Amino acid sequence: MGQVFVISDLHFGHKNIQNFAGDHRHGDNFIENIHYTVELWNKVVSKRDKVYVLGDVCFDEFWLGTLHEMNGLKVLIRGNHDDRIKTETFLKYFTSVEGMVRYKSYWLTHAPIHPHELRGKKNIHGHVHQNSILRPYTNECDERYINVCMENTGGAPVSMERIKAGERGWKQWLDDGNARIVERNQLKG
Question: Which domain holds residue 144?
Fold first, then answer.
């Protein structure tokens, strides 16, 4: 097997996602965003890689077919918008469908979990789009939480290697705008 990646909140078929996400999503409309996502995904993820999709894949079954165009073995961690589609249907596109997964020193979930439930691990999650989980009273990012929504990753899955190399470094890399710059340059080349 190759590398392991994570990403969340693809929202395929969500006609208003561009309005909610602003310039954090690529393209002028949701169709362009889907095409960009597939192209970028396949530049980052190989066929041998594994990708944990942390929920909110699509808004109806029609868009699931797009997943067959995307490299890698995919595992779904269900999100709040994934209740519209039956597990049996998801299993045609994902190797498994889960509610929450413990992966090494991380919890993989759709929505962030309560701090008391972390039990010494960090939480890789989605759900909050371009927002971050803040520490109470300080308004500083809580480093126990790693948001991998598309809006935070430049639209591409993020490797666990990059996350393990140092969440602070990964977050700074994103804050500096490098995800969008690098990924757009990869598509041009």
Answer: 4-188
User: At 74, which CATH number?
Assistant: 3.60.21.10
Cα atoms in the 13 Å half-sphere on the side-chain side of 163: 27
Q: What proportion of the chain, given as a percentage, has pLDDT over 70?
A: 79
Which pTM was predicted? 0.84
Which tokens hold the place of 90? 């998801």
Counting residues of the chain whose pLDDT is more than 90, the rounded percentage is 48
Q: Is the pLDDT of residue 183 over 50?
A: no
Express the helix, strand and coil content of the chain in percent, nearest 5 each: 40, 20, 45
Reported residue count of the chain is 189
Distance between CA 145 and CA 41 in Å, rounded? 23
Q: What are 25's two structure tokens?
A: 């999503």
- Contact (CB, 8 A) for 109 and 100: yes
The structural domain count of the chain equals 1
Rounded Cα–Cα distance for residues 141 and 86 (Å): 35
